[in-house]
Design goal:
This protein is mainly β. The chain has three helices and 22 strands. It has four domains: 14-108, Phage tail proteins - horseshoe like beta roll fold; 110-201, Phage tail protein beta-alpha-beta fold, CATH 3.55.50; 215-229 and 295-367, no CATH class; 234-290, Phage tail proteins - 2 layer sandwich fold (2-Layer Sandwich), CATH 3.30.1920. Helix 1 (126-139) runs antiparallel to helix 2.
Length: 373
């Protein structure tokens, strides 16, 4: 069995900085309690927390400094900005004298804005398209947009009459075969100043499967885990449905013939896809994603054992080893961290849950080490 290091948990220093959303001017530092926050890959993460309203908090200007839709919020952990977003909701309860606040990361702003221009691109780098879709919107909340290119050219059209959200356009572009990841990344300036950067990652964000040194083990740095398997949501035959109607509609088919499984069938729609080879790539990808049974892993990791929070980000690949009566011999696999959720106790102690992908790669027994107790 794995030796489990015994460490003394120590409180982590957190500060919660609020700013004017439009110009990023710092308004103050608020005393949130009962905080939970999440960071996700290529999608918004969430924040919730509350402040007791009493004589001690009267000087914080709570009503003025938590206005929904107008206030930015940063979570600063041990001096480093680890979360940033927009306060969207607040609720005050007089009996409890508590102000509850909900926020989402800056990615959420792009889902509040419509694309109101009809534009067409022909053989244009996909990151240039992404930049042109978001640049003017990002400027409204003083977020810079990076200028990288991917070398992957695309034909693309967007239409004003569809009233699609800019975030939806960006999400659909990034999710294409050979697409890209995206997030608003935070950097620290002088004093408490924090900057926002809409960043594109090609071919993907984070430490690659080949280069990662991250490793989580149960028992050890993993304190709890759950595996669920669902054949009802899975399939081993996939039809991808593309552009066209009736007899002119194009389709692609992928099937997993391995094992003694009865046929389990699903369809996925890609009505904007008119190229047969692109549609086939979608069918192949969907077969991998939905191959029955679909597995979902929920992993809770300790904050007092490496890898520590801050040493990994959404997008990083890591090795996971599980050893208990259900997985005997130990089960080892490579999975990608899609996001994480942190609950911060009033004592400053943390509980961390990882969201990991289900397209995992199992390791042969010789590719991981076991340590006897």
């Amino acid at each position: 069995m794995t030796n489990i290091p015994h460490r003394i948990l120590r409180p982590v220093d957190y500060k919660y900085v609020v700013t004017d959303l439009r110009n990023n001017r710092i308004l103050g530092v608020l005393p949130f309690k009962g905080v939970s926050y999440s960071n996700m890959l290529s999608q918004p993460g969430e924040f919730s927390g509350e402040i007791q309203v009493n004589l001690d908090t009267r000087t914080f200007g709570l009503r003025e400094n938590t206005v929904p839709g107008r206030t930015g919020l940063y979570v600063v952990r041990e001096g480093k900005p680890i979360w940033g977003g927009i306060i969207w909701k607040r609720r005050y309860s007089a009996p409890n004298r508590a102000l509850e606040v909900e926020a989402s990361t800056f990615e959420s702003y792009f889902y509040k804005r419509f694309n109101r221009l009809t534009r067409r691109w022909s053989q244009t780098d996909q990151l240039q398209i992404a930049r042109q879709l978001t640049e003017s919107i990002a400027a409204d909340i003083v977020t810079t947009v990076d200028n990288k290119t991917s070398g992957r050219s695309r034909d693309r059209s967007v239409y004003a009459h569809e009233f699609k959200r800019a975030g939806e356009e960006l999400e659909q572009l990034g999710n294409l075969i050979d697409g890209f990841d995206w997030n608003v990344v935070l950097t620290r300036g002088q004093g408490m100043e924090i900057f926002r950067h809409l960043t594109f990652f090609y071919p993907e964000r984070g430490v690659s499967k080949k280069d990662t040194t991250l490793s989580f083990e149960y028992p050890g740095s993993i304190s709890a885990f759950e595996f669920s398997e669902d054949a009802d949501e899975g399939a081993n035959r996939i039809w991808a449905i593309g552009a066209g109607d009736a007899e002119e509609q194009i389709t692609a088919y992928a099937e997993n013939k391995n094992g003694n499984w009865p046929p389990l069938e699903e369809t996925q729609a890609y009505k904007s896809v008119s190229r047969k080879n692109t549609l086939q790539a979608h069918a192949n990808s969907d077969l991998t994603r939905l191959n029955s049974p679909v597995e979902i892993a929920e992993v809770t990791v300790r904050s007092d054992i490496e890898p520590f929070l801050g040493s990994y980000e959404p997008g990083d690949w890591a090795r996971f080893v599980f050893s208990d009566d259900y997985f005997n011999p130990p089960f080892a696999t490579m999975m990608r961290i899609i996001g994480y959720n942190v609950s911060v106790g009033d004592d400053g102690l943390e509980q961390i849950g990882l969201t990991v992908n289900t397209e995992r790669e199992e390791l042969a027994p010789g590719e991981y080490e076991e340590t006897d107790e």
